[in-house]
């Protein structure tokens, strides 16, 4: 068969679906390692980053109802919830979470930016050691202070 060389490549829909699948697989794969009885603040920061990226990908794909992130703590565990999905649980141990710059749920717009009135959001897992995660006003998620 003859193929037109200008028609080579991937469509935007294919690329977005691959990004969403990678996010889902990484969120599920992280769960395999989170079932241990000891708490790691680093694990919580990684789960927060993964959940944030999953909510951003849903917003970019136009999946209304799946484009929000919520983190709560109670009865010795942290709950990470993306949209209406089943929350992911991690034992909190002696660690507490403080959030500066937003209230939950954090919703993302169609550009993947958090709808937090242009403010960055600082997450701090206080424990031994203490870890910080920043969600910038433009949607970048990274470890460290804002």
UniProtKB/TrEMBL annotation:
<keyword id="KW-0812">Transmembrane</keyword>
<protein>
    <submittedName>
        <fullName>Tfp pilus assembly protein FimT/FimU</fullName>
    </submittedName>
</protein>
<feature type="transmembrane region" description="Helical">
    <location>
        <begin position="12"/>
        <end position="33"/>
    </location>
</feature>
<keyword id="KW-0472">Membrane</keyword>
<dbReference type="InterPro" id="IPR012902">
    <property type="entry name" value="N_methyl_site"/>
</dbReference>
<keyword id="KW-1133">Transmembrane helix</keyword>
<dbReference type="Pfam" id="PF07963">
    <property type="entry name" value="N_methyl"/>
</dbReference>
<dbReference type="InterPro" id="IPR045584">
    <property type="entry name" value="Pilin-like"/>
</dbReference>
């Amino acid at each position: 068969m003859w193929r037109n060389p200008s028609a080579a490549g991937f469509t935007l829909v294919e690329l977005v679906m691959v990004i969403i699948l990678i996010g889902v697989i990484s969120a599920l794969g992280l769960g395999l390692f989170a079932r241990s009885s000891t708490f790691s603040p680093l694990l919580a920061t990684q789960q927060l980053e993964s959940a944030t990226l999953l909510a951003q990908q849903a917003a970019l794909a136009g999946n209304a109802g799946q484009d929000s992130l919520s983190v709560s703590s109670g009865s010795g565990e942290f709950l990470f919830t993306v949209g209406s999905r089943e929350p992911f649980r991690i034992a909190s141990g002696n660690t507490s979470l403080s959030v500066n710059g937003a209230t939950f749920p954090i919703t993302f717009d169609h550009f993947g930016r958090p709808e937090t009135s242009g403010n960055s959001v600082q997450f701090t897992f206080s424990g031994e050691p203490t870890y910080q995660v920043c969600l910038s006003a433009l949607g970048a998620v990274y470890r460290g202070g804002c």
